Amino acid sequence: MSALRRKFGDDYQVVTTSSSGSGLQPQGPGQGPQQQLVPKKKRQRFVDKNGRCNVQHGNLGSETSRYLSDLFTTLVDLKWRWNLFIFILTYTVAWLFMASMWWVIAYTRGDLNKAHVGNYTPCVANVYNFPSAFLFFIETEATIGYGYRYITDKCPEGIILFLFQSILGSIVDAFLIGCMFIKMSQPKKRAETLMFSEHAVISMRDGKLTLMFRVGNLRNSHMVSAQIRCKLLKSRQTPEGEFLPLDQLELDVGFSTGADQLFLVSPLTICHVIDAKSPFYDLSQRSMQTEQFEIVVILEGIVETTEDQDEQITSNIKIMKNFFCNINYSLR
């Protein structure tokens, strides 16, 4: 059994099966029951190993309109493909709309038919059709200014439209470019270089039974004000009979002593002492291996991203690590 476990790991369990056919089959001399490796049933996690929460909101009804009230945050939280799609779509619609406005002004004034008349002063010079109106808008919006197409002083409605175009362009640029900048500056990939131990261990340390795991930083850039917290997710029933499917309990990892404030220049061992105040105090070694619970480790800090002209720009980072009953129990 131990040899099979070393070979196939803990993702499989050994079960005893009879020979082919249904029911019990007689065994011949020297023939024992056959052993078959069956993969263990995967448990559904509340938080994945990569820190993604497996939570899906349902039965929102009319509450989905609340996402539009905070449109900027909603756009930042979208996936990159949707951000790029909205970015391109917004600029395309805005450009076509403003180019149509310039074409409408030229059409209502008759500039499209009189543009080639020598003594006639149009609203916008050298605008003959919609493509030329679109090129004029792009040249003015992007401040290219080739000088071939330009607005004249004989068109007050064109001057008003030009002011509206400048204000609208500034608002669209500030909103969309700001959204893209915030999304690019989010340090989500920073968690790839913050390593946690694969398993948590319960062992004796300083004469006390302690739950321990390790965390380390692979980069040379330090995390400022790094703080670690642990949450125990476990279902329980209150004395009044209420069932709490995801009750959250705090695991003390040094809050009272300041040990939860980390200086991650080298791998550190995070400890939770199992004393009378610990949720694990009443659990034995066997019950802990069969108990249904989940430990979520949250590491928060500030990452130094750029430094320019004595101005330091920082961004917050939050990493969550999940130990779903991956606890090795050993006593020394």
Automatic annotation (TrEMBL):
Which gene carries the instructions for this protein? Kcnj3
Q: Name one GO cellular component term.
A: monoatomic ion channel complex
Membrane-topology annotation of the record:
Multi-pass membrane protein
The Potassium channel inwardly rectifying transmembrane domain sits at 47-187
Task: List each copy of the Inward rectifier potassium channel C-terminal domain by range.
Answer: 194-316
MF terms (GO), sorted A to Z: G-protein activated inward rectifier potassium channel activity
Site (Role in the control of polyamine-mediated channel gating and in the blocking by intracellular magnesium) location in chain:
D173
Q: Which SUPFAM superfamilies match?
A: E set domains, Voltage-gated potassium channels
Q: What organism, scientifically named, is this protein from?
A: Heterocephalus glaber (Naked mole rat)
Quote the subcellular location field of this record. Membrane
The organism's place on the tree of life at top rank: Eukaryota
* GO biological process terms, semicolon-separated: potassium ion import across plasma membrane; regulation of monoatomic ion transmembrane transport
Write out the biased-composition intervals (Low complexity): 18-37
User: InterPro entries from the xrefs?
Assistant: Ig_E-set, IRK_C, K_chnl_inward-rec_Kir, K_chnl_inward-rec_Kir3.1, K_chnl_inward-rec_Kir_cyto, Kir_TM
**Catalysed transformations (reactions):** K(+)(in) = K(+)(out)
* Coiled coil spans: none
Q: What is this protein called?
A: G protein-activated inward rectifier potassium channel 1
| This protein's record includes keyword tRNA processing | no
Q: Where is this region: Disordered?
A: 1-40
Transmembrane regions listed in the UniProt entry: 84-105, 159-182
Q: Name one Pfam family in it.
A: IRK
Name the UniProt key words of this record, in alphabetical order. Ion channel, Ion transport, Membrane, Potassium, Potassium transport, Transmembrane, Transmembrane helix, Transport, Voltage-gated channel
Q: What family does this belong to?
A: Belongs to the inward rectifier-type potassium channel (TC 1.A.2.1) family. KCNJ3 subfamily.
